[in-house]
Amino acid sequence: GRVTQAVAEWTARHFNIAAAFVRAGLLGVKLTGRRGERLVRWMANFAHRYSKGMVPALPEHIPLPSAAWRIRTESPLGGENMVVYLPSCLTRTMGKLPGENAPVGLAEATIEVLRACGLSPFIPRGIEELCCGQPFASKGFPQAARIAAMKMVDFLWDVSQGGAWPIVCDTSPCSGMIIQTYDKLLNGDYYKRWKRLKLYDFPAFMTEVVLPTREQW
Hints:
This protein is α/β, with parallel strands linked by helices. Helices cover about 55% and strands about 5% of the residues.
C-alpha cells in the first residue's frame, strides 16, 4: 500500500534514525535482561503475523546480539594505498552474540587486517546515514531501494575521490546488492558514477587485489 511504500522511502532517506533505533533496542534488551528479551520476541512475532511474513519472526533459538560498538569514522586525508572501508548496517548496529569473547568488533578487525597488509583504510564520515538498499529491494520496495542506491553512489563517489580508491564492503549480501544489482536501479549520472567505482566484497578484495601483491607471508 501507499502508506507502507512511504514508510520505506522515508526510512531509506533517514536510515541513520532507523539504525539508531536498532542499537537502542538491542541496548535496552541487554539492560532489561530476560524480561526485555521476551517482550522483543513477542513484538517481532506479532509483527511477523500481522505483516504476513514481511517482518521476520524472532524464535527462541535465534540469539539476540548486543548493540554494536560505535565505529570511528574520519575524513579522507589522502596518501598512498588508500581504501574506503564500507561497514554494512549490520556491522554498524549489531555486536557480539551471547558467549562471544572477541576483543574487537568486526569493523575494528577489518581495519586491522587491511593495515597489516600495508593499506590505509578509513571509514568515511556520514556512513551511518546509508543503506545499500537490500532490505527494501528484498521486500518489494523498488523506489526505496532506488533512493538508497542513489544516496550510496553519491557518497561513495565523493569519498573515493571520484572512483580513484577501492571500496571494500564487509558483508556479502550488501556487496552483492551494490555490485550486482545497481545497474537495475540507477540511470543517468548515477549509473555512470557507479560504473566507475572500484567495488569489492572483502574476500574478493583480498584474493584479487591484496594477495597478488604479496611476495611473502
